[in-house]
Amino acid sequence: MSNPVAPEPLVRLLGLCKTFGAQCALDQVSLDIYPGEGVALLGANGAGKSTLVRILSGALAADAGELWVDGQRQRFTSPLSARRVGIVAVHQSLDDAIAPGLSVAENLLLDELGQPDADFLLNRKSLLHRAEAIAAGLGLDLPLQYPVERLGRADRQLLVLARAFALQPRLLILDEPTAALPEADAERLLGLIDSQRARGVAILYISQRLSDLQRVTNRAIVLQDGRLTGDLNTRHLPSAAYTLFGDIAENPSVAPDQALPVPFLERFTRAGFIRNRAEGRAVQAQVAGLGSSVAPADVLPSGKTERT
Fold this sequence. Notes:
- This protein has a single domain (11-293), classed as P-loop containing nucleotide triphosphate hydrolases (Rossmann fold).
- It contains ten helices and ten strands.
- The longest helix has 16 residues, at 183-198.
- It has helices spanning 49-56, 79-84, 104-108, 110-113, 124-137, 153-166, 183-198, 210-216, 237-245, 277-287, and strands spanning 11-20, 23-33, 38-42, 64-69, 72-74, 87-90, 171-175, 202-206, 219-224, 227-233.
- A six-stranded mixed sheet has the order 6-7-8-3-9-10, sandwiched between helices. A four-stranded antiparallel sheet has the order 2-1-4-5, with helices on one face.
- GO terms for molecular function: ATP binding; ATP hydrolysis activity.
- InterPro entries: AAA+_ATPase, ABC_carbohydrate_import_ATPase, ABC_transporter-like_ATP-bd, P-loop_NTPase.
- Pfam families: ABC_tran (PF00005).
C-alpha cells in the first residue's frame, strides 16, 4: 500500500527577519499555512504580530528570509502584489477601509474601482447588479443603495469582510474582526468566515476572544520577542493563553456606532455613486490611502518605530 502524499503548504515562510533600528521585530520566523486551515496568531504587545502581518500582506519587506506561495518564491512590493497571489488582510480599524461619501455598493467594489483601468462610467443599474451578485454569493443582505455612512458598525464590518471575499482570497488575515461587536453580530460574521474556510480559504486570525479562536482555528502559533516560540493545537489554547497573556476577556467592551466622516467626497450626492471621470480619479486617490493597503508601522514621538 502506498503512503499518503503530504499536502503542500499554501504559504511557507523561511527564516523571516525584520529590524527597526536596534530593535529586532522578527527573528528567524519559519511557518507553513495550509489551504483551509485556521491559524491563530498569538503574542503580547510588541511580540511581532503586526510586523509579520505587514510582511505577509505586502505592506512591508523583510530584511532576510523567504516567502513562498504555492511553491513559488514571492517578493511583494505592495499589498496589491500580495493580493494578486491571493493574500488579503482585513485590519482592525474599520473606518480606514471605507470610503465615506460613496454608496454601500461602491464600497463593496472599491478595490476594483481603485484600479487604474477601472470603468467609472458604469451605469448605476450595472454597478448594483454586480454588487448584488457578490452579496448574494456570500449570503449577505446589505442595503447596497444606501450611503455607507448609514451602516451600523456590525454591517460595516460585514461590508469590509465581503469586500475582502470578493477578491477571492486564498489566505485571509483577520485582525480582531469581532472585538467591537455584540455577540449576535459576531456570530453572523463568524458564520461567514466558516463558509470561506469550508471552501478552502486559509485564515490567519488575531483575537483576544478565546471563543473566536476555538471556533475559527485549529492551530495556534505564538510569537514572543519576535521569535516563534509555540505551535499548539487550539484545544489546548485556554490554559496556554492564560499563562502567556494573562486574563483574556471573553466579552470585550462594545464600541458604540460612530458617524463616518466625509473628508473628500462632500461634493458627491449623499447617495454616493461616481458620476464622472474626475470623481473617479478622486476615488482612486482615496483608495490608495485606505486601510486595505495596510497602514505603515506606528512611529513613536522620538522617531523610533514601535514594534508590535
